Amino acid sequence: xxxxxxxxxxxxxxxxxxxxxxxxxxxRKLVVDVAVLQKTVESQQNIIDNxxxxxDSHSKKQDEIYDTLNNMKVELVKQIGQMSASISALTSDxxxxxxxxxxx
Length: 104
Known about the structure:
Elements: H1 2-103
């Protein structure tokens, strides 16, 4: 029995050291993989944040365009109203002049 244990002992010790080494290597690989994954997630988050800022910027520009168009529409309606009033006044003046010329 002692002979068997003394013969097996170096092999068992070698196998144990190998198993511990493989386990440590596996743990190290997992740590590296997690670090790479964290960097990838941070990179993707930065891309998402940049896209959100860009979308906000485009939305603001679009809102400014809509506001400008609405302001132009209001101004155009005002100008058409003034023009209509001027045409009415001009029509009235032409009728009055026509009446004056018809009297003479």
